[in-house]
TrEMBL record:
<feature type="domain" description="HTH crp-type">
    <location>
        <begin position="148"/>
        <end position="221"/>
    </location>
</feature>
<dbReference type="InterPro" id="IPR036388">
    <property type="entry name" value="WH-like_DNA-bd_sf"/>
</dbReference>
<dbReference type="InterPro" id="IPR036390">
    <property type="entry name" value="WH_DNA-bd_sf"/>
</dbReference>
<dbReference type="Pfam" id="PF13545">
    <property type="entry name" value="HTH_Crp_2"/>
</dbReference>
<feature type="domain" description="Cyclic nucleotide-binding">
    <location>
        <begin position="14"/>
        <end position="102"/>
    </location>
</feature>
<keyword id="KW-0805">Transcription regulation</keyword>
<dbReference type="InterPro" id="IPR000595">
    <property type="entry name" value="cNMP-bd_dom"/>
</dbReference>
<dbReference type="Pfam" id="PF00027">
    <property type="entry name" value="cNMP_binding"/>
</dbReference>
<keyword id="KW-0804">Transcription</keyword>
<dbReference type="InterPro" id="IPR012318">
    <property type="entry name" value="HTH_CRP"/>
</dbReference>
<protein>
    <submittedName>
        <fullName>Crp/Fnr family transcriptional regulator</fullName>
    </submittedName>
</protein>
<dbReference type="InterPro" id="IPR050397">
    <property type="entry name" value="Env_Response_Regulators"/>
</dbReference>
<keyword id="KW-0238">DNA-binding</keyword>
<dbReference type="InterPro" id="IPR018490">
    <property type="entry name" value="cNMP-bd_dom_sf"/>
</dbReference>
<dbReference type="InterPro" id="IPR014710">
    <property type="entry name" value="RmlC-like_jellyroll"/>
</dbReference>
DNA sequence: ACATTAAGGGGTA
DNA sequence: TACCCCTTAATGT
């Protein structure tokens, strides 16, 4: 396999404080993965033999309910660690990771985890920061699901996606990866029909513009209002 | 205030 | 063509 370029990791939080030689060593132990949209990177319950860093693209983290349908817990954007089961002292992945768009990731065998934690300055802090953020985000989503009306939940979900993956354009901020109505309903515990109706209503109000798998938010502030204030 | 059902349009492999 | 994504109206809880 061709040698990976060191600039892939320089500047990324887990490795930002490292010397070139250390980064070289880390890259030489890494495996490079490319995934097409909808490809499964690993499954919930599967033996966690490697941990990952997303270089490019977007992932969905999914859990299946006993009822059979799936819940989208969160998205992962470039530069983030994922599949870090060893940080939770687990030997299986707690959720399924699916590529939301064409993605590129690096991975390392879990046996290198202790070494990374102790040897590389910033890696441990970044891992725990990531875990904390994820936990907080999931907790927030779940509380939302249990307590708030559908329109507020959908507004929050869209806002979360644009704050994590928003791409600025002339007319607003667009979600940087493909999202279907069904996807949003899987994030918010509602149906694709309700999501479709809400997006249509918001479109008539000039808040968003959406086409197939693509959402552009033209008035983020209005969405914030919808996510906070009772309709 | 929501889900479900039904019926259809349009795009794409 | 079959399949996926999206829309809307009517009806049900």
């Amino acid at each position: 396999m061709a040698k990976l370029d060191e600039t892939l990791l320089t500047g990324l939080p887990p490795f930002s404080k490292l010397e070139q030689s250390a980064i070289r060593g880390i890259l030489d132990k890494a495996k490079l993965h490319r995934h097409n949209e909808r490809a499964v990177i690993f499954n919930e319950g599967q033996a966690a033999d490697r941990f990952f860093l997303l270089l490019d693209g977007y992932l969905r983290v999914i859990r299946s309910t006993p009822g059979g349908d799936q819940i989208i817990l969160l998205h992962i954007s470039p530069g983030q660690l994922f599949g870090i089961a060893p940080a939770l002292h687990r030997d299986t992945y707690p959720a399924t990771a699916v590529a939301a768009a064409e993605s590129v990731a690096l991975s390392w065998p879990v046996r290198l985890w202790p070494e990374f934690m102790s040897r590389y300055d910033g890696f441990a802090t970044e891992s725990y920061r990531t875990l904390g953020q994820r936990l907080g985000q999931i907790q927030e989503t779940l509380t939302e699901m249990a307590t708030q009306a559908v329109e507020r939940r959908v507004a929050s979900a869209v806002l979360r996606m644009i704050s994590q993956s928003g791409r600025k354009t002339e007319s607003g901020i667009e979600i940087a990866f493909p999202v279907t109505r069904q996807n949003i309903s899987d994030m918010t515990g509602t149906t694709l029909h309700t999501v479709s109706r809400l997006l249509s209503a918001w479109e008539r109000a000039g808040i968003v513009a959406s086409t197939r798998k693509h959402i552009l938010v033209m008035k983020p502030h209005e969405l914030v209002m919808l996510s906070e204030i009772q309709g």
